[in-house]
Amino acid sequence: MNRNDKLDEMQVQRKNKIGSSCFMIMFYLLFIDIGLHEMGIRWMAYPINVLIIISICMAYYLIKIIWTGSYLGVSIKNQNSRHVIGGIIASVILLISGIIISILFRENTNILSNIGNTIILIALFILTILVIISLGNISRRKSDSGED
Amino acid sequence: MNKNLRFKSARAGKDMSQKDIAEAVGVTRQTINAIENGGYNPSIQLCRAICKVLGKTLDQIFGEDDSNE
Fold this sequence. Notes:
The complex is a heterodimer of chains A (148) and B (69).
Chain A: H1 9-38, H2 48-67, H3 81-104, H4 110-143
Chain B: H1 5-13, H2 18-25, H3 29-36, H4 44-54, H5 58-62
Helix pairs in contact in B: 2-3
């Protein structure tokens, strides 16, 4: 889905500005990393170092566009916050129960351990979706901020 | 940048909130707020859309004068 279609002109401008600054930060961090590597300083083994730098930049980009209200466009309405919070709590409970099942029955019964792993995967999948919806809600609230 | 008081007064004259204007022209409320407070320079298309909703000319809302440069 191309979210840019629904962003207004100020949101697109801000998103582009944040994107370019994020790209420059990533470039300089990778450049410094290469320099450190040449000097014999290895703070993390390859390719984890590159992955960490990219993840930091992506996290910065995501936080910044949510903070400036440029993550979701004009036409997308908020989901009900109560449903989202309830869903997150239910998924966390599901995740914990999945972990408990897989740990308790790891050595005794293989089938139950597999069920536990499946529950963990499903809970993580639901949690990811709910977190994305929550981020959208936060961005939407930011877009609606202002005074009359 | 200075605040666009003429935009604010024209909006108040029409008894419209920032949200009403934002929905009418298809932008977020944050954008309308930024235009009013001088934090964002809108495109000519958006200016024209705002003027159309408020029933004013471009010059009346976004024209240059001492308080709106």
